[in-house]
Amino acid sequence: MDYKELNPETIDTVTQTFKALGDPTRIRILTYLFNNEHSVGDISTTLDIKQSTVSHQLKTLKNLRLVKSRRDGTTIYYSHDDEHVMLMLDQMISHIKHG
After folding, report:
1. pTM of the model
2. What is the model's pLDDT at position 82?
């Protein structure tokens, strides 16, 4: 890839994605969604985060296409939406634990 050819929209999206990944609550949510999908209530209970906070963070992550949702009756389940980002997150965690 020739990085000189990145358009402003791509650069902006990359920047917004890194900003989103710079938030501890969002990292906790993403790592919780690493292997399984979960509802807002499940995420809230397991991670001990207010449901309103979880919903707000999921909206941000969904807008950046980092998570996706699936409705089952009245419950909405969330899962990660980009294997590349999850791999990058996993590698960063491995890097931190290694060093």
Report:
1. 0.87
2. 86
